[in-house]
Amino acid sequence: MQQLANLSVHSSLPTRAIEVSQLSHVYNGIHGEVLALEDISLQVESGKFTVIVGPSGCGKTSLLMMMAGLRSQTSGELLCHGAPIPQPDPNRVGVVFQEASLFPWLTAAQNVEFPLSLRADPKVARRQRALQMLSLVGLDGFADRFPHELSGGMKQRVSIARGLVQDPPVLLMDEPFAALDEQTRMTMGHELLRIWATTSKTVVFVTHSLTEAVYLADEVLVMSARPGRIIDRIAIDLPRPRTYEMMASDKFGGLRERIWQQIRSQH
Ligand SMILES: Nc1ncnc2c1ncn2[C@@H]1O[C@H](COP(=O)(O)OP(=O)(O)OP(=O)(O)O)[C@@H](O)[C@H]1O
Ligand SMILES: [Mg+2]
User: Which of the residues 87, 98, 133, 207 has the least number of beta carbons within 10 Å of its own beta carbon?
Assistant: First the structure.
């Protein structure tokens, strides 16, 4: 844990990490206009783990891209720690996508270092920081492996390390474990909670797995079918640290069921 000493806690930031007010988005595609998101309002407090679930095509990825500054909404406001995010800024918001989009010609450490090279940080400091992040995600000893030498779960760990390397206070994750087998996925979820608890990040996490949602979240936001709206927000008041045994509890089952009923009503 010593290597985590210089992970800042961002204690000077406002307590509201993300604030979305009356956000709507219309895509102008080749088939005409698509109302993707409609009147979304939500708040994520600093340090909380929020999970978004909803039917395919309801706008989850679109919303995350807006939170990451990768796309701008048609109307409404989106603030990250009190300020708009007009373009990607990995110092403020880190992003991890479904596919571990690593550069195949770079080693694990070089992939993690990559965002720092864009800032022209000193080479030795970059390397050291990358090794710290690889250690944090449980990849000690794999720094010099290339992506094709790593398993799917390991690649996704490298992606998480890369998302954390600039120590952003907010980490957005869009179905990061969807391509993994169930066992690896459970392990990765557990690991992510450990990293989250260690680094005090605000996490917004999209998944289709309701078990994963309940296991990870402080709060689950349920979206309607397109146009996406927030139709329910469910506080997950299970104790932390979460354990696999909790999944068998009535309380866990009840929370999962409530989310499922909301999603089912959309079909
Ligand atoms: N660039 C685009 N141009 C036009 N329409 C788009 C574009 N990107 C997304 N859409 C449409 O917006 C809607 C929301 O898409 P989005 O990818 O955000 O959904 P999602 O909830 O992430 O879905 P999934 O669960 O399948 O990943 C969909 O109807 C999609 O077809
Ligand atoms: Mg998506």
Answer: 87
